[in-house]
Write a structure and sequence with these properties.
single chain; mainly alpha; Alpha-Beta Plaits; 2 domains; two-stranded antiparallel ribbon; elongated
Amino acid sequence: MITFQKITQAITLAVFIILILFAAYPFDEGFPADFFLRLDPLAAVGTMIASRTFMLYLLPGLAVLAASLMLGRFFCGHICPMGTMLDILQGLTRRKKIRAKNRSYEGSAQFRSWKYLGLLFILASAIGGVSLVFLGSPLSLITRLFALVLHPVVLLLGELGLQASAPLAARLGFSSLLYSELTPRFFATNYFVFCLFAVILALSYVQPRFWCRNVCPAGALMGLFSRHALLKRQVSDSCSGCGRCIGKCPVSAISESPKRTVHSECIVCMRCKEICPESAIAFSRTTVVPDETLRAPDPTRRGILLGIGSGLFSAGLLQTSVDQPNTLRRERTLVDPELIRPPGAVLEPDFLNRCIRCGECMKACPTNTLQPVWLKAGLEGIFSPVVIPRLAGCATNCNVCGQVCPTGAIRNLPLIEKNHAKIGTASVIRHSCLAWEQDKKCLVCDEVCPYNALSFRPVPGLRNPVPFVLANRCTGCGWCESKCPVNGSSAIRVNVIGELRLSGGSYVDKAREHGFVFKTKDKSHDLIAPGTFDAPGGIENDPFQGAPESPTMGLPPGFSPK
């Protein structure tokens, strides 16, 4: 039977998938690809607390909380893609029928307080200055699944289908299909993300929507706001006590006595109303009799202390770990040289506090260079995006990662600003370089460099000129590293030396202050990826056009002239 809930879930899931698909290059500026992520109340509250900043673009999440005061946990029952996916997958799996008594609130209340403990843990860690929102945000988790797992698999299957259908397309004369192709995508940690969701689904086999009723911290937050919601489940005296509503409730919010309801657990799916043979159930603003309301699940005093204490202690551990960024923003020299953040990423402590690890920027990146990281940034930085230059370079004509970031961890910069957001500096590994080590003619790095940051010069003892990096011209885009013909590790590698990261202000002005000269080669700014495909537009109004090109001009500390 098609119900109101199924209609709203189908519509919202379709919109969610469409928004993920449109988070890609070329990106229509102003398109709300991150809309669903900004609806997550846990992401909004946790990110604001951890970053100590009020963010206007996260107001939709606060609006969902405010709406919960009136409508209850309607978001969980009708809008949340995680809940919708669990309902769909549970419907596809065969489960033995559970007695109505075991589907009642009393028969399934043993794990209810877990989600409140998780909420206290995340909020306490945010108060301690560490954002662990990504561990429990349902919108972040489900977006990560679609962006890093399902989307690449669909592309792979599509490409295999095109290859398999090529002989038939040639026979039928479908030349357009014959020359069509889908570019494959590859992501680190995708197997782990899949296994995590598989565990969530397996738990749902134990109890329907196990995640929603027992684990989800966002659900706990909305549950706190919906305890006295205006829209509540009402049962009239015509109820015969048949118990069909108890068996149909996906979150077991109904007592063994069908007239009693735990309103903070009810997701307003209205299934009980639709199957009630007596039409005794309604959702209205009528005052509920106290005897018809069950006490909501509350953690014990010991549990509250455990949740808050473990959150604060975890924040302290993470901030005092040698692998973590210094939250006092002091100079740190102990930094992984390969921890290269995307252009426009704010300062590392702010970046980790804002980034909810949704994977939207990685999915949108046209060159697939953005990848989720494991432990390069410590435990706090797991799943956060980094640039892997050996895999691909950063496109010069693309700023989509900042446009789809829902929390401002990557600033939404105009293209000219983004191309002055230096993410590192390349350096030649001479013992691996074909020109330096084997005296061979190789100009690949110079040919693909969009900023003319390579200089080939003769040196005594070698017949062929060898490459030198002009540090004040290099943005760290990584095209030289990705295209280096040396097998294994590249002979020219990008590291974080000289990176520019600003939480506010102009990258163009800061680049001028440091003496950087990011001037593109002729027509190279029209290439989103050197040697691959073209894109219209480019870097316009370059403030450094005509600037002197001396490699020693105003170099910041740590650089030396070649």
